[in-house]
Amino acid sequence: MRFDRVLIVSLLILSAVSGFSAALRQKGAFVGGYTPIKDLNDPHVKEIANFAVSEYDKQSGAKLRLVKVVSGDSQVVAGTNYRLVIAAKGGSRSAAASNYEALVYERSWEHFRNLTSFKPVH
Q1: Which region is the signal sequence (predicted)?
Q2: Residue 6: predicted pLDDT
Q3: Which of 56, 84, 90, 119 has the fewest CB atoms lying closer than 10 Å?
Q4: What is the pTM of this model?
Q5: 16 within some domain
Q6: Looking at the domain assignment, is residue 65 inside a domain?
Q7: Cα gap 78→48, rounded to integer Å
Q8: What are the φ/ψ torsions at residue 111 (nearest 5 degrees)?
């Protein structure tokens, strides 16, 4: 009798995980892999990009400002990794924008974000 319960519970868990995985695949996301961000103008993507520039400025003393999000991918983990290529420029208005790759880790349900990496794209 105990074996039957374990089997039923195992099948229910497997079914739930399979359904969740299928739902993520339909959205174009899967656990562990990066998928392209479809809407780079999404307010949340812009918020992540602004966070990256702001944190980089705090850590480095630079005075960059976001111009636009050039491209981006996201990765579902125990949270979400965002890998964005952003155009940003320095303090002077005449300065040309440069591209940077920013990696941001977010656990939105905890209101947690961390700038993992911010480097120029060559």
Answers
A1: 1-19
A2: 58
A3: 119
A4: 0.72
A5: no
A6: yes
A7: 17
A8: 55, 45
Please check whether residue 35 is in contact with residue 25, taking contact to mean a CB–CB distance below 8 angstroms. Answer: no
- DSSP annotation of 31: B
**What angle (nearest 5°) sits at the alpha carbon of residue 104, between those of residues 84 and 122?**
40
**CB proximity list for 55: less than 8 A, separation 6 or greater:** 115, 118
Element of type H or E holding 54: helix 43-60
Residue 87 sits in a domain whose CATH number is 3.10.450.10
Other Cβ atoms within 10 Å of 62 Cβ, number:
13
92: helix, coil or strand?
coil
- At 17, list the tokens: 């995980």
Cα within 13 Å of Cα(1), Cβ side: 0
Whether 73 contacts 83, CB under 8 Å:
yes
* Residue 76, token pair as written in the block: 């579902």
pLDDT in tens, 27-78: 555 556 899 999 999 999 999 999 999 999 999 988 899 999 999 999 999 8
Cα–Cα dist 82/53, whole Å: 13
Q: How many domains does the chain have?
A: 1
